[in-house]
Amino acid sequence: MRIALRLLAPAVTTSLLLSCATAPTTPEGGGNAAATELVNKAVAAQGGADALSLIRTLSVKASGTFWEPEQSVKPGGEPRLAGEATIATTRDLDARAARIEWVRKYVYPAPREYRFTEIVTPAAGQVQGIDTTARTKQSLDSNPPQHTMSGVRVAATQRELLRTSPRLLLEAQKSPSAVSAIGDQSAGASTFPAVKYQAGDVAFLVLFDRATGLPARIRTLDYDNIHGDSTYDLVLDDWRDVGGVRIAHAQRYELNGTQIARIRYDEVQVNPTVAANALELPAEARAASAKPTGPVPYQWVIRRPNIGTYLDSDAISYDPQANPGGLKLVEVAPGVQHVVGGSHNSLIVDLGDAIAVVDAPVGEAQSRFTIDSAKAKYPGKPIKYLVLTHHHMDHAGGARSYVAEGATLVVGAGNGEHFRRALAASDRLGPGVLAQNPRRAEIMEVADKAVLGTGSRTLEVYKLDNPHVESMLMAYVPSAKVGFVADVWSPVRDKLGDAPTPGQAAVVAGVKKAGIAPERFAGGHGGVADYGPLAALAERSAKR
Q1: This prediction's pTM
Q2: Which residues have a Cβ under 8 Å from the Cβ of 385 and sit 6 or more positions away?
């Protein structure tokens, strides 16, 4: 199935965000008439306040399909199909507690199945892994392993549970001072009357169907590490009566107009009996009291589990328990540092009079660490280049910090417009590095080869044909005979088998095409490994 990628133009997105951000506040003690009328009409259309107020517990069995636009083969291309899932949710709406049982069947980045249960309360949460061999017990060896949720995961899960609550607009009706009219809002070619509902720390923009009065979209304004300030919509359809209230059975999620998830309610029960311990957390999870230490990166927390690569940590890119030191520099060779300690790595290269960095993983916090560490290691030298091996959000999500430093982005041929557009978008909802220090991104596209620097130590950049993405780049430091690649091969982490994987074979072919002689490779994941064994494996495999 093809899912069209329809990102809003930066100017349109910025205009929309500004209009929402400057929505009139509600007078103390009551809402304006337009907002009140919209909310009252929606509550009546859903079955009325009396019927909605009687909902205490809810049980939903659903199926879902998920896509990730920022794992596409080419920038702006068809979102990658991530996988499918069956989901069984039991909720206590008064306690704001939920039990969510998942069976996720992933397609990307590799076919596999995860079975796990999430139990979440306002104070804490736990992921309970299921042993997929016996499938009869909780297991620390399962995937994902059993663990207490990070604060950001609890916050994001609570927000999404509130977004899907059948009582959301009833709560808005009960809190008129938290509701204000914001004028018509756009979605695609349509406009909708809308209100802003401030539910604690979360602002929901509710867009209503003009004919029925039902909520058509429940929107938040989120920060995306590639596209900046973005709209994130829950689109509601196929409303059906369940126990005297109307509940949307067809739901989809859109990021800037691009579908990233589709959920189908297969069975819904209102006020089912819930076992006393079904929503109870173990003592160790209750004691965690998970609270985010800063702004919640909602899009990262929501979308990374869709491809099964989520690191459940408030530090986002590393686990403070497994790695108390966090991110660090490891010297690969004189003037060459590998930034490791997290889920994604970078490479710092001293070019003599300036510094080049390869990859800007995850987000601005990791970029800030890398930039500050590079300046401390090589004082007085500016960050002149940021080489992005490819456009995926987990390897390019921290690019704004480098643009703010004045660095030139070096990307594969054909990727320039994607990054120009993304970096021109507003980023006020996130760390705001470009909002605070506006700069136009200078971008260099590499069609075949580029050499950065002019002294005894240079950084060579080559196009790498591969099965992962179009316009992938490979970096090489000739003075150290060290290469750098991301995703196609993760040295140390990826053990060599009987034959090279397609990605490993692409690295060997790329080395031959470039005419270089690397002794070692550092990875965007993993560590640093000798190149010789991989080259020998590829040669043996070719002779078979």
Answers
A1: 0.92
A2: 354, 355, 356, 357, 407, 408, 409, 410, 452, 459
139 residue type, one letter? S
- Cis peptide leading into 144, omega within 30 of 0? yes
Rounded distance between C-alpha atoms, residue 216 and residue 494, angstroms: 46
Length of the chain: 544
Residues 234, 251 contacting (CB under 8 angstroms) = yes
**Cβ atoms < 10 Å from Cβ of 274:** 18
Give 3's Cβ-side CA count (13 Å radius).
23
Q: Phi and psi for 181 in degrees, rounded to 5?
A: -80, 140
The encoded tokens of residue 352 equal: 């003599």
308 phi, psi to nearest 5 deg:
75, 25
Residue 176: CB atoms within 10 Å? 17
* Nearest in space to 82 (alpha carbons), one of 114, 117, 110, 62: 110
Q: Of the given ranges (9-13, 57-61, 74-78, 449-453), which has the lowest mean pLDDT? A: 9-13
Query: Which whole-number Å values give the CA distances from 29 to 41, 43, 177, 206, 452, in the listed order?
Result: 20, 20, 5, 21, 62
Structure confidence at residue 324 (pLDDT): 85
pLDDT tens profile 31-85 = 489 999 999 999 999 999 999 999 999 999 999 999 999 999 999 999 999 999 9
Residue of 60, 276, 50 whose CA lies nearest to 167: 50
Residue 543, SS3? Answer: helix
The pair of three-digit structure tokens given for residue 497, joined into one six-digit string:
């088998």
